[in-house]
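Late entry, written up from scratch paper. The run itself happened at the end of the previous shift, but nothing got recorded in the book at the time, so transcribing now.
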Amino acid sequence: MKSKKLFIILLLLVVCTLFNIHFALAAYEIEVSIPGGEAKAGTEITLADYIRYLYLFGLSLVGIAALGALVYGGFQYMLSDTITTKEEAKKLIWGAIFGLILGLSAYLILYTINPDLVNLREPTLPESTEPTTPSPFQGGSPGGTGAGGEF
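Output as recorded:
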């Protein structure tokens, strides 16, 4: 019974996703300026641009968090004889440095896997190259007699 419910729920999610996929390709008018981006409030951006702005905003947050952790770890290290040990402060500082390296190397990791992963662009369909064949009702006969539409 549980597997049947799970199947129905997953089927509904897939159907809803397929019917709403065209919303992902539409341009969206942002209401608030995105920090770190050129887009200002009231301009239309695509999904690829929006994801790029979110990535840059996330990198900014990682940098600010790493800076805060480094400052806090530095204060802990300076005051280590009175409040904490030097090992706890070193652990916090190295954790901040490794987190910063990991956050900033996300681009390098994605580029190493596939360079197209970092070049976001709007998805497009290729033009149809299917040859058109004349319909038997459009005139002309395959026998070459020139009598259009006769059998």
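The chain has a mean pLDDT of 77.
(Scratch paper discarded after transcription.)
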